Amino acid sequence: MSNRLVSKGARVTLHFSLSMADGNVVDSTRGGQPATLEIGDGNLPEGFERHLIGLSAGEQGEWQVPPERAFGQVNPNNVQYFARSHFPADMDLQPGLVVSFADASKTELPGVIKEISAEEVVVDFNHPLAGEMLTFAVEIITVE
Question: Quick one: pLDDT at residue 98?
Answer without folding.
Answer: 95
